[in-house]
């Protein structure tokens, strides 16, 4: 075991037991502290995650939304995932791409096919993508993946728009690979630990490179030590006790923050979905109820206020709407989880998909519904492009200053979307929300500059940001 093993399983179990029935008074005190936006102690998080009564739960939800608005304002950042290959030599018991799923039609996209996928994603209005693939050294090597990133950045759609930020979610890399990845200019590098509980982890990953719990656990250390600026962590909820995973995610975040002064840029919160020939997706070991899922989102928002929280289309639209109000700050839209899925309307997509999606609405429908819910859909990539990354980003996010950039950039990127891609109804509703939200830009000069940018976009300029 590594010397500075930062997941303390014994401590987590002890705290979860000690805080099993938190008193209302204690909860109130913790929630008041959470509003200071400085995060919480592990024992306080253990108390929140053990809440079961309705009244304290509602207080928790309200606090989470307040924190989200204080840090990020009223925006929700959108992205689309792009799967480049479903070959995989691992055997994760919950995933459709697993090696032993012999019914999966395997595919590794050519660079031309990738460009075509990107063109379709761009025509939906997206500006940021998340590129993913299975782990297979010969069928989809790391060098191939680097080429796919360059190919994706090179595409222009009919409006002359290109992808402005590519985030990456691929198997843990070596030091040398991170140095190469750095050169192709990516945004965030993400890996989910799946479960932080070592014994469960080893059961879920019976063979292949992924069996090594510690190789995966220390991937973000390797990333930050080798030039990456922004990293994303996550747990796959349903493998082990969700309360344990929440506390472990916090220990991971604290470890990165203490050691590198860069906490995780994002935390992802996937719940296991149905997947072909994947025993633990058909029979989930520790299912997380909707009530507990909402609670864990709100607890994470209180515990690490500065960190973006990502929700995918694994969740059904109704649940997505509910957790936007609990602290989620980034969402995928119009997703496909099979390589080539954007181009093909397949007869049997499940033969190539990693898992089934529950929110199958188009990007346009999701944007309309986000606006109707009162949030500003944002395609912002400003921080990454102005190098507000790593510690610089954290220095703005922690005291709640990042929203000075987030809201204006959300409004200018939404304006681009409305002019270039939206239907008539969305256009009207979008213009209304822009007008309404301009008032929330507290700095007068910034507000005036935003209005100027909006007019310039109306008149044909693009890519104006703060
Ligand atoms: N293959 C790489 C890896 O495992 O690190 C890249 C990421 S994989 C394409 C994306 C993530 O999908 C996995 O980390 C896992 O958490 C998630 N996933 C796999 N099967 C799933 C399922 N049945 N339901 C929900 N999420 C799943
Ligand atoms: Fe492969 Fe990743 Fe799926 Fe595991 S989760 S089988 S590593 S694609």
Task: Describe what you observe in this structure.
The protein has 20 helices and 9 strands. The chain has 466 residues and is α/β, with parallel strands linked by helices. The model has no long low-confidence stretch (mean pLDDT 94). The site of iron/sulfur cluster has 9 residues, from loops.
CATH top level of the domain at 69-383 is: Alpha Beta
CATH architecture label of the domain at 69-383: Alpha-Beta Barrel
Shape: globular
Bound compounds = S-adenosylmethionine, iron/sulfur cluster
Largest sheet: 9 strands, parallel
H-E order: HHHHEHEHEHEHHHEHEHHEHEHEHHHHH
Summarize model confidence as the mean pLDDT.
94
Secondary structure tally, helices: 20
Distance from N terminus to C terminus (CA atoms, Å) equals 45 Å
| Strand residue content | 5-15%
Corresponding CATH superfamily of the domain at 69-383: Aldolase class I
Taking pLDDT < 50 over at least 5 consecutive residues as the criterion, the unreliable ranges are none
Tally of strands: 9
What's the helical proportion of residues? 40-55%
CATH topology tier name of the domain at 69-383 = TIM Barrel
Global Rg? 21 Å
Oligomer: single chain
Q: What structural class is derived from the secondary structure elements?
A: alpha/beta
């Amino acid at each position: 075991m590594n010397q500075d093993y930062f997941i303390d399983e014994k401590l987590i179990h002890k705290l979860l037991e000690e805080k099993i029935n938190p008193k209302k008074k204690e909860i109130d005190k913790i929630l008041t502290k959470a509003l200071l936006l400085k995060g919480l102690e592990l024992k306080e998080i253990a108390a929140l995650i053990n809440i079961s009564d309705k009244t304290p739960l509602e207080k928790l939800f309200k606090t989470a939304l307040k924190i989200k608005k204080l840090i990020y304002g009223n925006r929700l950042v959108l992205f689309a995932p792009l799967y480049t290959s479903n070959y995989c030599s691992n055997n994760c018991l919950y995933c459709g791409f697993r090696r032993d799923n012999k019914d999966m039609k395997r595919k590794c996209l050519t660079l031309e096919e990738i460009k075509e996928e990107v063109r379709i994603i761009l025509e939906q209005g997206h500006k940021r993508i998340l590129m993913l693939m299975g782990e297979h050294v010969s069928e989809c090597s790391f060098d191939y993946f680097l080429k796919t990133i360059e190919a994706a950045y090179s595409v222009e759609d009919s409006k002359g728009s290109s992808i402005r930020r590519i985030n990456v979610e691929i198997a843990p890399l070596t030091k040398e690979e991170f140095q190469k990845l750095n050169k192709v200019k990516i945004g965030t590098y993400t890996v989910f630990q799946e479960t932080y509980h070592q014994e469960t982890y080893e059961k879920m990953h019976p063979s292949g490179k992924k069996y090594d719990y510690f190789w995966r656990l220390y991937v973000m250390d390797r990333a930050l030590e080798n030039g990456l600026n922004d990293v994303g962590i996550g747990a796959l909820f349903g493998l082990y006790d969700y309360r344990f995973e929440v506390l472990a995610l916090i220990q991971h975040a604290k470890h990165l923050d203490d050691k590198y002064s860069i906490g995780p840029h994002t935390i992802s919160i996937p719940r296991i979905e149905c997947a072909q020939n994947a025993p633990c997706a058909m029979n989930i070991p520790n299912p997380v109820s909707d009530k507990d899922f909402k609670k864990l989102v709100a607890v994470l928002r209180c515990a690490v206020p500065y960190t973006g929280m990502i929700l995918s289309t694994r969740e059904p639209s109704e649940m997505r709407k509910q957790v936007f109000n609990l602290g989620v700050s980034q969402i995928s839209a119009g997703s496909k989880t099979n390589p080539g899925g954007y181009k093909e309307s397949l007869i049997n997509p499940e033969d190539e998909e990693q898992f089934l999606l529950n929110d199958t609405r188009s990007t346009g429908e999701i944007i309309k519904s986000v606006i109707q819910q009162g949030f500003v859909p944002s395609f912002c990539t400003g921080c990454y492009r102005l190098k507000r990354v790593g510690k610089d980003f954290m220095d703005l996010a922690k005291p709640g200053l990042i929203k000075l950039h987030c809201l204006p950039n959300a409004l200018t990127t939404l304006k681009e979307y409305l002019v270039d891609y939206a239907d008539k109804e969305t256009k009207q509703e979008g213009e209304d929300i822009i007008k309404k939200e301009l008032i929330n830009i507290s700095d007068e000069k910034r507000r005036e500059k935003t209005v100027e940018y909006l007019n310039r976009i109306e008149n044909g300029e693009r890519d104006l940001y703060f």
